[in-house]
Amino acid sequence: MVHRLIAVALLIGVVISCTCENDSKTVDPISTTYEPKFREDGQLWFLDESGKDTNLRIAVEVAMTDEEIQYGMMYRKSMDELKGMLFLMKNERPQSFWMKNTYIPLDIIYINSQFRIVSIQKNAEPLSETSLPSFEPALYVLEVNGGFCDRHNVKVGDKVYFEHRRQ
């Protein structure tokens, strides 16, 4: 009984604290209380232009449903250097992403159906609603930490290979 009273008192304190904050500022309750955890669904290898030599391997979380693709990296406050989110798009076409509700800068890598990197949007600005287009048709999109491509010499024309466990 005492534990329940303490829990209720703490909850009331949190509610009062939240309602007393600056009313002119909108607070997103999801972003302040929940940060999605990385789910390792597979691996992705960066290859040289020939596709024969592996330059780097990272773990990937795969987004394949409409909801996962729309949600993407939103509300995440960090990501390990050798991790990324791989989006499996439904159609190969020019793609475009934005950074709404995304708190960390990202490099957005657009990849075509031949697994060749066709374009890279580097250091995308957090929380921006500016469209970040692929400029060329892409079937896959990979998001990694901002500056990743420069740090690991990933460039347009390089190839990737990936395996994932999700169906």
3D architecture notes:
The protein is α+β, with helices and mostly antiparallel strands. Helix content is 20%, strand content 39%. It contains 4 helices and 7 strands. A 7-stranded mixed β-sheet has the order 5-4-6-3-2-1-7.
Spatial strand order of the main sheet: 5-4-6-3-2-1-7
How many separate structural domains? 1
Span of the ends, CA to CA:
47 Å
Largest pleated sheet: 7 strands, mixed
CATH topology description: Jelly Rolls
SSE sequence, one letter per element: HHEEHEEEEHE
Estimated structural class: alpha+beta
The coarse overall form would be globular
Portion in helices: 10-25%
Q: Rounded to an integer, what's the Rg over CA atoms?
A: 19 Å
CATH superfamily: Protein of unknown function DUF192
Query: Spans with pLDDT under 50 lasting ≥5 residues?
Result: 1-31
Helix segment count?
4
- Per CATH, the class reads Mainly Beta
Instruction: Give the total of beta strands.
Output: 7
> Beta-strand percentage?
35-45%
Brief description of this entry?
The chain has helices spanning 2-19, 29-33, 66-71, 148-151, and strands at residues 42-47, 54-63, 83-97, 106-111, 117-124, 132-145, 159-164. It is α+β, with helices and mostly antiparallel strands and 167 residues long.
